[in-house]
Amino acid sequence: MRQLPPAHYLLKIDGYSFLSNTAEKYVSDVFEAEGYKWRLSFHPNGDKKKNVENYISLYLVIAEVDTLPPCWGVNVNFKLFVYDQIKDRYLTVQDADGAVKRFYAMKTEWGFEKLLSLESFKDPANGYLVNDSCVFGMEVFVIRNTGNWESVSLLNPPLMTNPTFRWEIREFSKLDRESYQSQAVVTLCPKGFHSQKNKSLSIYVRPSTNAFPNKAAFYVVSRVRVLDEVNGKHAERAVGGWYDFTTANSFAHYADFMSLEDLHKSSNAYILRDTLILEVDILIGSQTKVFHKKQSKPTCPLFQFDHKKVLSHQ
């Protein structure tokens, strides 16, 4: 039960008894919702074509199908409503799993052949039929394929003009700040950072947006290397992860890249002529392609229409 009235159509029937005694069904006027034309089909004593008895039946019918293109099809999710006039609430009826229904040339109506039992519908305590008057409603949401989609590929090697970044840091012994940054790619903390303060050389990698201009988030596997130009025993670390430029702290962490003891040990030759050389290789990078297709049929936003029809018998 809900208090909000149906968004797209209301059908009020004054004189239900007369209708049930004189007609097998009543088909509403045409109304528009979600860019299509529709009708409600109400069977006051059940759908006789389906041998339904002791129930009321209610269907949503697509109308004016001759105006639709050849091989047309409309996928929808819809709800039907029965108004409780005592509680001022609407009983909502839809498939339990919210199944999508497809309207096409051979199937132009969907609904519920056993919407409510006549016993429940006519029970005065339920409020569905008051003073021989009842109200039904409908909401429909058309599911359209917009043709918009996206593909992401992990490429090895990545499609980059220069997948290797090289940074020569001269006068390394004179570095006195906590951190240094080069071209918004690498942040170097020569004496460590946070828990690795005065313990390790800390390095943080954040690829430039120039390398991945079409996507706010992308995947990168990078390898960081501090060169030993004498022995060739370079210190290397590799890590992969998703980078999101909408998040300020999105970068690869090498807080404990190497101990300060190993860094400054003369036999390792990581610092030669007071110069440290750092390289970053982008080994794998993601490539994202976004495709857009212009819709051929204009859409109408949900809850745009609010129609009401009254059927009266004097």
In short:
By secondary structure, the chain is mainly β. The chain contains three helices and 21 strands. A hairpin with a 3-residue loop joins strand 13 and strand 14.
List the helices and strands and how they pair.
Elements: E1 9-14, H1 16-22, E2 26-27, E3 31-33, E4 36-43, E5 55-62, E6 73-84, E7 89-93, E8 101-104, E9 109-117, H2 118-122, E10 133-143, E11 149-155, E12 164-170, E13 180-182, E14 186-189, E15 200-205, E16 217-226, E17 235-244, E18 252-259, H3 260-264, E19 271-272, E20 275-291, E21 307-312
Give a written overview of the molecule.
The chain is mainly beta and 314 residues long. It folds into two domains: 9-142, Apoptosis, Tumor Necrosis Factor Receptor Associated Protein 2, Chain A (Sandwich); 150-288, Apoptosis, Tumor Necrosis Factor Receptor Associated Protein 2, Chain A (Sandwich), CATH 2.60.210.10. The chain has three helices and 21 strands. The chain has helices at 16-22, 118-122, 260-264, and strands at residues 9-14, 26-27, 31-33, 36-43, 55-62, 73-84, 89-93, 101-104, 109-117, 133-143, 149-155, 164-170, 180-182, 186-189, 200-205, 217-226, 235-244, 252-259, 271-272, 275-291, 307-312. Strands 1, 6, 7, 8, 10 and 21 form a six-stranded mixed β-sheet that branches. Strands 11, 12, 16, 17, 19 and 20 form a six-stranded antiparallel β-sheet that branches. Strand 19 and strand 20 (275-291) form a beta hairpin. The radius of gyration is 35 Å and the shape is elongated. The protein starts with 8 loop residues before the first strand and ends with a strand. This is E3 ubiquitin-protein ligase SIN-like. InterPro entries: MATH/TRAF_dom, TRAF-like. It holds the Pfam family MATH_2. Residues 6-140, 162-282 form the MATH domain.
